[in-house]
């Protein structure tokens, strides 16, 4: 029996970065989470485990509030993946300013939606 078609990792993980983690409007962010994530997702951050769409939305909103209106996450190349596991490298900082942080999102995809998301941060440069 052939395997199910692979999801579009690049589309899904870029949409997550743009529509969830760069989205300042809470209602639009909630709509994106409902589309992109399973009903009960889990996000693993270096310091916390976050469960549920509402909690992930709250974390994303708090990050954007904390770092100001010009802070943005930008993908570094296309996302890649296979067998339900995808990764997207990114950098973040002020829109026209220096890079503040770099990292990668690693996602377990179930039925075309994000079930688990690991946020991996690179150590500071220098």
- Name the structural class: alpha+beta
> Remind me, CATH topology?
Nuclear Transport Factor 2, Chain: A
Shape: globular
Name of the CATH first level: Alpha Beta
Main sheet overview: 7 strands, mixed
The N- to C-terminal Cα distance equals: 51 Å
Number of domains: 1
How would you state the average pLDDT, rounded? 94
**Count of DSSP H/I helices:** 3
| Tally of strands | 7
Strand fraction: 35-45%
- For the record, the CATH architecture stands as Roll
Low-confidence stretches: none
Order of helices and strands: HHEEHEEEEE
Radius of gyration from the alpha-carbon trace, in angstroms: 14 Å
In helices, the fraction of residues equals 25-40%
Give an overview in words:
With 126 residues, this protein is an alpha+beta fold. It has helices at 9-21, 26-36, 53-67; strands at residues 37-44, 49-51, 71-75, 80-82, 85-94, 101-110, 113-121. The longest helix has 15 residues, at 53-67. The mean pLDDT is 94.
